[in-house]
Design goal:
6 helices; 0% strand; mainly alpha
Length: 97
């Protein structure tokens, strides 16, 4: 495994969209320029370790996930919980029909 700034940027972009933030909002929260943030998201520019730590805190994820794409157990647990909630909602809807 190795650090791929393009893949890292794609993961950062997905996380941002999951939270419903614009690039400008994310950049503001991270105290960086929008241009810098965009460059990181598209992989034109690698993020410093300090910025990656701030991004991981903002998006409630691990550095392993941001840098290497490895899902942490905490993140997988959250995804499983969300999926269970969706399934339960679909079952409720099905029973109502």
């Amino acid at each position: 495994m190795y650090y791929d700034p393009i893949e890292c940027g794609m993961r950062i972009s997905r996380l941002r969209m999951e939270l419903g933030l614009t690039q400008a909002q994310a950049a503001e929260k991270l105290n960086i320029s929008v241009q810098h943030y965009r460059s990181v998201e598209v992989g034109r520019r690698g993020a410093s370790i300090d910025l990656l730590v701030d991004i991981s805190i903002l998006y409630h994820t691990s550095l392993d996930y941001l840098i290497l794409g490895k899902h942490s157990e905490m993140r997988l647990g959250r995804i499983k919980k969300e999926l269970r909630s969706i399934i339960e909602g679909l079952e409720t809807l099905e029973n109502a029909l």
